[in-house]
Every structure is written in structure tokens, then in C-alpha cells.
Write a structure and sequence with these properties.
Layout (H helix, E strand, L loop, with lengths): L4 E4 L2 E5 L8 H6 L1 H17 L1 H11 L2 H15 L4 H7 L5 H4 L1 H16 L2 E8 L6 H4 L1 H24 L15 E6 L17 E7 L3 E3 L11 E2 L15 E8 L2 E8 L3 H5 L6 E2 L12 E7 L8 E6 L4 E7 L7 H18 L3 E12 L4 E7 L6 H10 L1 H4 E8 L2 E6 L5 E5 L3 E5 L5 H6 L5 E3 L7 E5 L3 H4 L3 E2 L2 E6 L8 E3 L3 H10 L1 E3 L9 E3 L12 H17 L3 E6 L10 H15 L1
Length: about 575
């Protein structure tokens, strides 16, 4: 990033490498502060007409109001109101109605804090001394300085000090360290090489963001031509998050207008180590938010067989402003790639459970969005004291099965985190995640939280499958578990992928999705069908219990108790 400060779409990005203000006066003199005041005045004109009209009558133009307001703030950090007015009588209007001026200060402070605020430091190479080491201290200092400006100015105008201080995050709520890295880049993608890699992330939870969309729609289809061949990304506008999606090295390029979706990857996927990508070629490249001139949503993938890289693409439009388009495309790319290696992607959840009686079980619960995967894990968690000694989440949304050399079937995860509906979490657990979570649209339907739930070592270890269950969210039955001995019947149930839509996408009613997985198997039905038959046959031979788990998640009045009752029944079975 070549600019010291950018502000757009409610996002402020401060480049500490180009400009770091270590005093209050430097902040007040900075281009960034002037830009914030400029945009704030435009907001006043639109939303706070009474306050705006009061001051504009005196200053006539927005530019003069902006200039004078900044001058007043500078003076108020070192002078009292009487001294400020002796400097020039034009400042008197701010003190003629102190209550109105204090309201203006509060509005400005709230306007700033409602933004997504990011700081970056850009190293020319990895580990360049103090620039990396001092980044967190610089963020702490910046937070203290912004807070002190707000308090100093307001208390000077009031004429007395506050007696209650709330230590809010007033500076940045997220920071990124960037480094220039050389990777094994095919000639077709030379236009990507100027974008630095994110090598570390720091943020102050709870991080709350508001996006233009709150659901995801449709599936990602294969494209016949390479959408990113020979495109050139501008360093001012793009960031690169090197992720480990399962065991796939993935380069995620995201536009700064969709900053929160790129940043939130840090709570969902493992940030790859430098040694894993220096001089190497990725398995997957995803370009998210490329302005290609099309207003309609364009999301698809392309198989670059020449370079053995799977390409994902989403163009710059309001419709992709939802984290589901980031997460689900990455999982689609991962799944398509895994099938090329004869591994079976699973849309579901897997948990390793050690019960108090010493018995251990590895359980896979498969189902499409809203079927009850995450809710079942939540039910397991709430039963922790009664049954469980220890519980490990292997995957919460997507994983894959691999046939080992000894013939056993093991499950592996793709994500270290979970992107879950807040409403479906136990209230106590939801509050416990405040200190770690990234929240999206928390006051709306389908409010989401992205939280870490496992370590990369755990999800990549591989666990032998003992139970393989389909999450049935629509049938109301007394017995919550049903095992299927007939292999053809079992495959039919799982391939049908039936569920009642629960509002997480734009689907409604009873719907089906091939193998409950619109993220790879739907697009690659031929290879997926072959793998399903092979893996189900092998699981049956290995004694894996295959069947249905009735979560009742979409049955009226059973949203909470359905997954819990099914979990109780499963634990009772394992205990016997």
C-alpha cells in the first residue's frame, strides 16, 4: 500500500510505514485527520441538519468549517476556552453553545469508532527489525493518543474532568504486517507479484462489522477461460492473505473495499508460515473483488491445468459483500482440488470425543447449511459436564475423508475456526466468545460470528471415522438415531442431501443438494459419485456406523432441544 491514509466505504486504513503520528499534534496535523473531518462534515450535512446549519451560518462553506474546527481542536489540546477565543473571535461560536459543541465532539468520536479501522506496516523483507517488533506498541500508542485527544478536547470545553472513564478502542481495531515475498509465479500471473503478503494479524475483539449483504446465493460454476490471466493488481488497493485451507496452500487476494472479509480469514483459516510459500507455487489462487466493469455478480472458478493451480474469482460488486462468498468459494476450490487427489469432501462437522468412562469416538455429522451440524456440536458442548472428558473439533463446516495406506478412512479438517449463526449458540457460550470473535451484522437476521475453534495441528492430524451420520433437520421423530445397513439405501439418503432451508441462504422450504455439498461435489458429480461409492464401501467394511441423526432443527419448537436430544441419544449409545 503506497498511501499513508485511505478512507472509503466506512473503512479507514492507516499506513504506519509511511506515516506514524506519535504525538497528539502530529495526529491533528495529519492528512488522515483532515480527511476524517471532511467526511464527517458531509455526514453532519445529511444526518444532523440542526448542528450543521448552526455552524455553517458562521463559516459559509464546508471547507472553512473543516479548517476552523481542526484549528479549534489543536488549540483546545493546549489552551482553555477563554485563551482559544483570545486567539481569534471566529472560535467564539464553539463556546456560545457549549452543549451543542460537546454533542458535535461526541458525534465525531462515534463516527470514527463506528468505522472499521486498520493499521498496516509494510516491510521490504521478513523480520526487518524494529518495524515488526514495535508494530503492536505503535498501535497501543496510537490508541492512547486518539483517546487522549477526545478526552482533552471535551473536558476542556466542559470545564471539568469526567469521573467515569471507559477504556474503549479509539485507535485501530485491527493491524496487518505486510512483507514483500518472492514466490514461484507462473508468467500468466506476473501482475499479482507486487502485492505484499500478510505475515501477521493483530486485532481488538469484539470486532464488529456491517456488510451490504447478509446471505449467500447460488453455487460457483466452472468457467471456460482464466479470469485472472495477465491482470495487474494495484498495490494501493489489494492485500494477500496466504491461507492453509486444509492442506492446500491458498493465496487469497482481496480488494481493500472488502477488507473485513480478508481480515476475518485470520479467525477461520491458518495463516501460512513464510517457509511454506517463499519460492513456492500455491495450489489455489482466489481473487476477491476485482473491478471488471460488470455490475452483476460474477463468481466462478477455473482449472489452470498447465500450472496445476485452481483459480477462484469474484468481481467487485455489492452482492459479494458477505463473508460467505469468501469462505464458501475457498471451500469449493479446496473440495474440487481434493477430489483430484481421490479424497472425498464432506460438508459437515467432525468431533473427537473422549467420554468419562474412557470410551472414545470420532463422529461425522453431514448436512448442508442449516441442517444442524454446528448446532449438534453446540449440543455436545453443553453436555460436556455430564458425559465428556475431552472434546476436539476436527471440522465445523467442511472437511474431507482420505483412505490411508492401511485401508482405514480418516477425517481431516479445512478450517481452524467457525463462521456460525449467533442465534444458534448457547447464550453463555456466545458471550464467552466476545473476547475472540469477529461479528457480522449482529443486530440482523442470520447474524454471524467468526471464532477460532481448533488448532491446525488438530485438524490436519487425521482421525479414524467411527460414526458417519446424515443431519436430518426436517423429520419429527421420537428416536433420534437411525442406522442404515443397506449400502445403496445409505448412499441414496446422503446423495439426496435433503433439508429444510433455515434462512442462511436465499433458499426456502424443503430443498435438496447433491451429497449435501454445493461446494465441489455438485459441480463435479461424475468424480464425486465414484468417490462416494468407494468411500461408503470402505467405511462399511471397516465397521463404521452409517445412518441418520434427526436434529429437528427446522421443526417448529425443536430448534434448541432437537440437537440436544439427538446428542444425548448418541452419547448413550457410545456409553453402552
Amino acid at each position: 500500500m503506497l498511501q499513508e491514509f485511505t478512507l472509503s466505504e466506512g473503512k479507514a486504513i492507516l499506513n504506519f510505514t509511511l506515516k506514524f503520528c506519535d504525538t497528539r499534534q502530529k495526529i491533528l496535523n495529519s492528512y488522515g485527520f483532515h480527511r476524517v473531518i471532511e467526511v464527517f462534515i458531509q455526514k453532519l450535512k445529511k444526518d444532523e441538519v440542526i448542528i450543521y446549519n448552526y455552524y455553517i451560518k458562521e463559516f459559509k462553506t464546508d471547507e472553512e468549517l473543516q479548517k476552523t474546527l481542526i484549528e479549534a481542536f489543536k488549540l483546545l489540546t493546549v489552551c482553555n476556552p477563554d485563551e482559544v477565543q483570545t486567539v481569534h473571535n471566529k472560535y467564539a461560536i464553539f463556546f456560545n453553545d457549549k452543549d451543542l459543541f460537546i454533542e458535535l465532539i461526541e458525534l465525531l468520536y462515534t463516527f470514527w469508532r463506528k468505522m472499521e479501522r486498520y493499521t498496516i506496516v509494510h516491510n521490504s523483507n521478513i523480520g526487518s527489525g524494529l518495524q515488526s517488533v514495535r508494530f503492536m506498541q505503535a498501535n497501543e500508542l496510537f490508541n492512547e493518543l486518539v483517546l487522549s485527544i477526545y478526552r482533552r478536547v471535551e473536558e476542556t470545553v466542559m470545564g471539568y474532568q469526567h469521573r467515569v472513564y471507559r477504556q474503549l478502542t479509539a485507535g485501530a481495531n485491527a493491524g496487518l504486517t505486510l512483507s514483500d515475498i518472492t514466490w514461484n509465479c507462473p508468467v500468466e500471473y506476473n501482475g499479482l507479484t507486487s502485492i505484499p503478503f500478510i505475515t501477521s494479524v493483530t486485532f481488538r475483539p469484539p470486532f464488529i462489522s456491517y456488510t451490504k449483504r447478509n446471505t449467500r446465493d447460488g453455487i460457483f460454476q466452472e468457467h471456460s477461460t482464466n479470469p485472472i490471466e495477465n491482470i495487474v493488481l494495484n498495490e494501493d488497493d489489494w492485500f494477500l492473505f496466504p491461507a492453509k485451507v486444509g492442506n492446500m496452500l491458498t493465496f487469497v487476494y482481496f480488494h481493500k473495499d472488502f477488507m473485513v472479509h480478508g481480515f476475518a480469514l485470520s479467525n477461520l483459516f491458518e495463516l501460512a508460515k513464510e517457509s511454506e510459500y517463499i519460492g513456492k507455487k500455491p495450489d489455489i489462487i482466489y481473487v476477491f473483488g476485482y473491478p471488471d466493469g460488470h455490475e452483476e455478480k460474477r463468481t466462478f472458478y477455473y482449472k489452470d491445468k498447465k500450472n496445476n493451480i485452481l483459480i477462484g474469482y469474484a468481481n467487485h460488486c455489492d452482492d459479494i459483500d458477505y463473508f460467505g462468498y469468501m469462505k464458501k468459494m475457498l471451500l469449493t476450490l479446496h473440495n474440487v482440488k481434493q477430489m483430484e487427489y481421490n479424497r472425498l469432501p464432506i460438508h459437515g462437522a467432525m468431533v473427537n470425543i473422549l467420554l468419562k468412562n474412557g470410551k472414545e469416538a470420532n463422529i461425522v455429522i453431514m448436512g448442508d447449511s442449516g441442517a444442524g451440524k454446528s448446532e449438534s456440536l453446540e449440543a455436545f458442548r453443553t453436555l460436556n459436564e455430564k458425559y465428556i472428558r475431552h472434546m476436539r473439533i476436527i471440522f465445523d463446516d467442511m472437511g474431507y475423508l482420505k483412505k490411508e495406506e492401511d485401508g482405514t478412512i480418516k477425517g481431516y479438517g479445512t478450517e481452524i475456526g467457525a463462521f456460525v449463526r449467533v442465534d444458534d449458540l448457547d447464550p453463555m457460550y456466545a458471550f464467552q466468545q466476545l473476547e475472540r470473535g469477529i461479528y457480522t451484522n449482529p443486530d440482523k437476521i442470520n447474524a454471524r460470528i467468526t471464532i477460532p475453534v481448533a488448532t491446525y495441528d488438530i485438524i490436519s492430524k487425521g482421525y479414524k471415522v467411527d460414526y458417519f451420520l446424515y443431519a436430518n433437520n426436517y423429520d419429527e421423530v421420537d428416536q433420534k438415531l437411525k442406522f442404515i445397513d443397506d449400502l445403496d439405501e445409505a448412499i441414496k439418503v446422503f446423495e439426496a442431501g435433503t433439508r429444510r432451508a433455515k434462512g442462511t441462504t436465499t433458499e426456502k422450504g424443503l430443498v435438496t443438494s447433491y451429497f449435501a455439498n454445493p461446494f465441489g461435489p455438485v459441480q463435479e458429480k461424475e468424480i464425486a459419485g465414484k468417490l462416494i461409492r468407494e468411500f461408503f464401501t470402505d467405511m462399511s467394511k471397516n465397521g463404521v456406523k452409517i445412518g441418520e441423526m434427526y436434529t429437528s432443527l427446522a421443526v417448529e419448537g425443536h430448534t434448541k432441544e432437537g440437537p440436544r436430544m439427538a446428542a444425548e441419544e448418541l452419547f448413550t449409545l457410545i456409553n453402552d
